[in-house]
Amino acid sequence: MQIDWAHFSPASGVAGGAMIGLSAGLTILLIGRVAGISGVLGGLVQPRRGDWDWRVAFLLGLVAAPLIIGLAKAPTPPDFDAGYGTIAAAGLLVGFGSRLGAGCTSGHGVCGLSRLSLRSLAATIMFMASAMATVFLIRHVFN
Amino acid sequence: MRLAITFALGLIFGCGLYLAGMTDPGKVLGFLDLAGLWDPSLAFVMGGAILIALPAFRLAAKRRQSYLGCAISGPSSRKIDPALLAGAGVFGVGWGLAGVCPGPAVFNLGFLDPKAIVFFAAMVAGFGVERILLFLSPPARPAAIVQDG
């Protein structure tokens, strides 16, 4: 295994992670909800009475984040390697899978692991392994 | 007031994702590529997040109501069932294909980038497909009960 030292960024990783953890921690303590983004957004597909306004507020904050960061320094827009077909297929799989599996990187990987949930640990191991296998196939087998 | 706070929490979440590098598909794929030049940074993101969130969830587990008086809701299922594992497996394939998971997919909408918009639209379509399949085969998973996050 070779480490990519040129891109390795543990300090901003821990700092950014701490902000994500702070948001997730305050969301459960103040709003009483789990800050898993597939769950927050997915709950709007079939909205229930009295259970949509906080979702919209949280998601608007998330979308507004690049604009707020832009007040300090122009943020780097995402640079997608994949073409439109792959992007569309990936989005479909991410949406379908995260709902069927009842969570994503934030719901299972951050909130679930923070609750010491075995169910979330199983899901996290599963999606990590599946994502790593996918990247391995794309980059090193089919190239 | 509660909604303004919730908006701020979404904002903090998004700034954290950006600072962590989670919104950069190349960075994410660099973490997922164990056999290539591996960038372990995202493991530190998860570590930092859990370090802060874990005590908060411990505290929340002891309470019935949130500090703003909302009911505290949590996942009701503890079962490691086929739907959980199949869903996580499918999610992982999509994550590995594009390097984008749901949080960054919402964040990146703020750039009005065409590919970000296509990804987001496809993801919401994926939510819909899951609902439709659930509707067609209700015994597979009780609706609206299992939701971890």
UniProtKB/TrEMBL annotation, chain B:
Positions of transmembrane segments:
43-61, 82-105, 117-136
Q: Which UniProt keywords apply?
A: Membrane, Transmembrane, Transmembrane helix
Query: What InterPro entries does the entry give?
Result: DUF6691 (IPR046513)
Query: What start-end ranges are recorded for coiled-coil regions in this protein?
Result: none
Q: What is this protein called?
A: YeeE/YedE family protein
**Superkingdom assignment:** Bacteria
